[in-house]
Design brief:
By secondary structure, the chain is of the alpha/beta class. The chain has 3 helices and 5 strands, in the order βαβββαβα.
């Protein structure tokens, strides 16, 4: 257990879907995961583990902002053996063609926040998705 997560060791799947909104995490677990069970709910941030098409998958709310997701993602990677965290949820857009509810597969995202600087990362650290994997997902 960690200060922000009371799940037991092995409670999370190797892949975690990460919406900011706790209600979205609950919705995803109920609508898309088979045999989903609540594995943590510290500070109102629920985490669920179940399966999707026979594969273990978890979903964990992260709250708002880079500080919040930074804490949860660090603990998931460092203490729970998570291999991949996939951010899901809503975001803003600057194109008139985009509407609420549209699906966007982004290769990269940037921020002007300072969270990454505490780890010695200069500028806006923006990892980029593999194009072939992203295009297969879309």
């Amino acid at each position: 257990m960690t200060p922000h997560n009371r799940a037991e060791a092995g409670a999370f799947a190797p892949v975690v879907l990460a919406p900011g909104d706790p209600q979205r995490a609950k919705f995803v677990s109920e609508q898309y995961l088979a045999d989903a069970r609540l594995v943590t709910d510290v500070r109102g941030m629920p985490g669920y583990t179940g399966s999707y098409k026979g594969r273990p998958v978890s979903v964990m709310a992260t709250g708002m902002g880079e500080g919040s997701i930074g804490i949860y993602s660090y603990e998931l990677y460092a203490f729970y053996g998570v291999q991949a965290i996939i951010r899901i949820g809503t975001s803003g857009g600057l194109r008139k063609e985009l509407h609420v509810g549209d699906l966007v597969g982004a290769m990269s995202a940037s921020t002007d926040g300072g969270y990454a600087r505490q780890y010695g990362l200069d500028g806006s650290f923006s990892p980029c998705a593999d194009y072939q994997m992203l295009s297969m997902a879309m």
